Structures are given as C-alpha cells and as structure tokens.
C-alpha cells in the first residue's frame, strides 16, 4: 500500500505553524498559544477520512539558533552535492545536545523524507534569521512550499514574496484561521505539484474531502430535520394521584409543565448543536456553548429570536396553502378523482387561513389539564401550536450549521451567532417551503410523516442550507 504524503510544518517560533496544522488536519485539539515555545517536540497529525489516511502533517518546534546551525553546516560541507548528507550528519551528531534540541526535532522528519511547509508571519519584517532558516531548509533538498500566514495588522507580504520565491518552489498566502475550504483544496493541489509521487494521492485527497463535505451537509440536514420533528411534536406530560393533585393548583401545575417543556427544548437544541459540531470534527466548541446562552437577547424563546428567525405572514400564507393543498390532494386520491380537485383546493385554503391567522405571533403550546378521574389527574403541555416556532428553530439551526461548516479548526475565538438582518428563507423555492410547512403542520397535529414526506422535508432543509449559504456569502 502506498504511504500517504508527509509534510513537516516548520518555521520561526510562534508564527502560526500549529494553526496551519490544525486547519489542514481538521483537528481542533492541537494546542495553539500566543507564547513562543508551545511546541517542543514534533508531533504527527494524520488527515483521515472514513478510515483512510490522506496525508500526514508534522507539527514541529520553531528554529532557535538557525545561524549557528548554518555555520556548522557550512563548515562541514565540501560541495553542494553533500548538503543533504551534511544536514543529516548535523542531526545525528547533535541528538541530545540541549543547544539544538528544537533544530534536531524539526529537521528529523525532513531527513526521513517529509516535504517542507515553511510558515512565516507576513505582518513582521523579513530578517537575516529567516534567511538562515530558509538556507538550512534548502540544504535538505526536500520539496518545499512556503505559506505567508499574517497574524498582525502590518503587511510585509510583498517583501516576503520576493524573498521566499528564491528559496521555495511554491509561495502562497494562507490565513489558517479564515481561509475558506476551497483554499485548503487549492493548497493540497499545489503540494501535489511539488513531487510526482504526491500528485495522484493528493488529487484523490481533494476528491475525498469534497465528497466528505457534501455528505456532511446531507447528514447535517437530517440531524436538523430530526430535531425539528422532536421539538415541534414534543409534549410534556404529568399524571398525578388524587393526593398529589390536591396539593397543587392548576396554575402551579401549568407552570411546572411549562418550565419542563422549555428546559427540554433548550436541551434538545443544544444536543443538535453538539451533533453538528462533532460531524465537522469540532470537539472543543463544547466549552464555548456557555457563550451561546450567555447572549440572553438571542434566547430561543425571546421576542428578538421570533422577529429574527420567524417568517412573514405572506410567506406563511403561501407555504400554508401549498402544504394544505398537498394534504387535500390525498382526499382527491381516495375519491379516485371524483372530488374534481376540490380536496386540494379546500386543503390549500384551510392551510393558508391557518397560517395567516397564526402568522403574527408565537403562540404558546397547548395546555391541557384534565379532571380528576379514577383517582388520577393528567396534565399535558404541548405540542407547540404555532409553526413559527419551527421557523425559529430552523433559522437558528441553519445559522449555527453555517458557522460550524465554515469554521477552520485553527479558530479559537468564541462562536458568536449574530442574528440575520432580514429573512433569507424568502429566497427558498416554493416546493421546499411547502415541504417544510407540511412537516410542521404534521408535527403540530401529532400526525406521523411517511417516508416520502420525511425525505422531502430533509431535502427542503438541505435546500434551506444552500439558500442560507448563498445569502451569507453574497450579502452586502
């Protein structure tokens, strides 16, 4: 079996090497710190999809004494033909030498056959120290690529381009925190041009990663659809004995049920968010979840959430007509067409009327407290009777998915979910609107969807994600 390409990510200390490794290996567990010297030993990170390792990145310590190392190399080399062997001799001779521990760590994967990814900070000026580093790397004779990863606000990238172009086969600007997924793929293709043996495996790797991303989007749509069904149809129920019923008023019982219902919905939404994050290999955002609920004005049930994510009355009316017409069409089918389409028409009108009526307010779920019978009293809260609740959940879920799917694994900032400034679902096509509304109506009425309806619902959710992606990327 062909070994996957291996790349050692090297450079000056604290210039973004670990960030590049985290993003390209899709691993947010890699430590990224502001202080120099965080990485003291080389560490390999395979990029694996469906059990197959596509390539391996080696995170390394930064150069500490590059000019001393270069002096040694120049003193022990006879001609250009022995430079790679001289670098190998340096590592062999200085193993265990505390003065050159970091240089031995970063050069070892190169003398073992890894390609070079040299990372520089384009916001700091080029210096003689960097030239010594680049000269050492050139002496290894390994295929090489340089990345300009600007960390600060200053811009010296033009000077860096000129200098790096003299030492490396390919030079690219790459923001490890913000670079879009397409740039990741472009970088992999560039790696494939460095060494003939790498071209095919890295071309396959880009295909695997693209397909994997497409599958993730479909799986995310399924997760969101499942959560919506659960939350729209959820009912909080409590059965009390006569003794228990006598000790609590209907108002207190209603309050308890309502609190439990809200708590369940919040927990279900958080479960959905965690599932989406894990789907995209983000394991460390969990501790940032407190920040999501910290923004009280974005709370699931606040008026702000409703005004941001709920859809317009006009939208509800048209979607409601379509969903009602779909239900009414089943009547036409049962009567073998003798209703002459009246079922679809009536169903559409009922759906539109109901949506119009409920379109301007986020109604609470139905509360039902029964009478004491045979020594027991039953009370229920839910399911929610307003489909706007579903649109709030849908909007928040798609927004969260979008941020996660576009978030690089080098990102360490808090996940801040800002509300949209106008409603993107207005761009959704008519069949998708109707499929979503039909699903919400089914849940509200405690009716099960058949497999065909559920499939259409999931497809409509995925269409919503595409629509939202277009809206986010193209808005002014």
TrEMBL record:
It comes from the Bacteria. Pfam families: DUF3482, MMR_HSR1. Residues 7-92 form the G domain. SUPFAM superfamilies: P-loop containing nucleoside triphosphate hydrolases. This is GTPase/DUF3482 domain-containing protein. InterPro entries: DUF3482, GTP-bd, P-loop_NTPase.
